[in-house]
Amino acid sequence: MINYQNVSVSFGKFNVLHDINFHLKKGDFLHIVGPNGSGKTTLVKLLIGLLKPTSGEILMNQNMQMGYLPQKLNSKINLPMTVCEVIYSGFKKQRLSPSKADKKLIESWLNTMEIPQLLHASMHYLSGGQQQRVFLIRALISNPDLLILDEPTSALDPSFREKFYHLLYDLHQERNMTIIHVTHDLTDAVKENCLTMYVDQTIKFFGSYQDFQEFEHRGHHHV
Ligand code: ADP
Where are the domains of the chain? Predict the structure, then answer.
C-alpha cells in the first residue's frame, strides 16, 4: 500500500532524513517515535505530498483517501470559521452547505468527541484541546483508507486521551483502516500487535512493539 524506497530529504545542506526504506500493508497500525527534530513530521509530510523527497521515491496506491491531522495544534489557531465549516471541509465532496445527512454525521462525531454544543461555535473561541478534537473529526469524517496523525493528543486531557485511543483502535478494527501515528507517549497508545518505528534521521528500528521493547532495553530511548 505504501512503499518508501531509499528516501532522503535535505533542506539546503541540512540532511533531515536519509536511506528511509519500509513498506506498509493495508490495515497496518504504525507508531512512529524518535527524539525532537529527528524527522518524524518530515517523514509523514512526504506521504501527503506537502514535501517531495530529495532523492528516492514513495510508491503508494493512487486512489487512496487520506485523513491528516497536522502537528502543532496545541498552540491555538485563529481561524475565522465555525466548527461545522472546518469539519465540512474534511468531506470528500462539498456543496454550498452541508446536507441534512452530512449535518447528522457531523453532529454524531461531535457527540463522540464530547463537544456537541460547539457545532456553530467560532473556532476562534475554542480552547486548544477543543480545537484539536475538531481537527480530529475533520481527519476522520471521510472514513479515510489511510489516517495520519501527528501527535494527535498533545492538547487533550489524559482521560479523553484514553478514550481517543479506544476510538482509534475501534476504527482500525472495524474498518481495517491503515493508521500512522506520530507520538511522544507510546505507552498510552500502543497495543501488542502494532508496528513501531524509531526514527533518528534514518530508521533505527522498525518492527513489532515486543521487539521494540528489546531495542529500548539495549539502551535506546525515544524521548
Ligand atoms: P520531528 O517531527 O521529529 O520533531 P521534523 O521532521 O519536524 O522533526 O524536523 C526535522 C528537522 O528538520 C528539524 O531540525 C527541523 O528544524 C528541520 N526542518 C523541518 N522542516 C523544515 C523546513 N521546511 N526547512 C528547513 N528545515 C526544516
Answer: 1-64+147-223, 70-144
